[in-house]
Amino acid sequence: MVASDKYIVFSVLDRTIHVFTAAGEPHTIFRDWPHEATRTLALRADTLLSGELGGSIRCWDLATWYVLSTKALMRVRLKLTSCSHTQ
């Protein structure tokens, strides 16, 4: 689970990521299947990073509910600043 002044985010073993407002109101549910279950989350402003067991990292825009970027990495050191949109 991660939290900021705007969001509370947690992942569940059913491969979903649940996003709530800081007041506890439901905001978004991301369904990550058929991918691996999410094990790591990082949050800053409206940007969420999710790390999967298989090594993939997704960059989500919480304001628009879209995946901005997906990277398959074996080892990574992350400093959460921003993600660029890739198609």
Structure characterization notes:
With 87 residues, the protein is mainly β. It has a single domain (2-72), classed as Thrombin, subunit H (Beta Barrel), CATH 2.40.10.480. The protein is 0% helix and 53% strand. It has no helices and eight strands. It has strands at 2-3, 7-12, 16-21, 26-31, 38-44, 47-52, 56-61, 66-72. A four-stranded antiparallel β-sheet has the order 1-2-3-4, with no helix packed on it. A four-stranded antiparallel β-sheet has the order 5-6-7-8, with no helix packed on it. Strand 2 (7-12) and strand 3 form a beta hairpin. The chain is globular. It starts with a strand and ends in a 15-residue tail after the last strand. 14% of the residues are buried. The mean pLDDT is 80.
Protein traits:
Thrombin, subunit H; 87 residues; four-stranded antiparallel sheet
What secondary-structure arrangement, pairings included, does this model have?
Elements: E1 2-3, E2 7-12, E3 16-21, E4 26-31, E5 38-44, E6 47-52, E7 56-61, E8 66-72
Antiparallel strand pairs: 1-2, 2-3, 3-4, 5-6, 6-7, 7-8
Helix/sheet category: mainly beta
Total count of domains = 1
* Helix share, percent: under 10%
Strand order of the largest sheet: 1-2-3-4
| Count of strand segments | 8
* CATH domain class name: Mainly Beta
What is the beta-strand fraction? Answer: over 45%
CATH topology type: Thrombin, subunit H
Oligomer: single chain
The pLDDT mean sits at: 80
SSE order: EEEEEEEE
For the termini, the CA-CA separation is 28 Å
What is the 3D form? globular
Instruction: Report the CATH architecture.
Output: Beta Barrel
